[in-house]
Structure prediction request, 66 residues.
Amino acid sequence: MSGQDGGERQVPFYCPYCGDENLRPAGPDAGSWRCGACARAFELRFAGVAPTGQPGVPAAGGAPPP
Prediction:
């Protein structure tokens, strides 16, 4: 997709800051969201697909190597 999102929004289930589910789109750009509970705004974006088992690529939830 070469940097394009295809016009679809990535939908979060909860705020990454407070955990509340009161989320609304925050503007015309796909991936921009605003939490109604804590008033924080954040963006979701697809960074790419990384092959597993590669040096320097942490597994899901893992920390990067020192």
Notes: The beta strands are 23-25, 32-35, 41-43. The chain is about 0% helix and 15% strand.
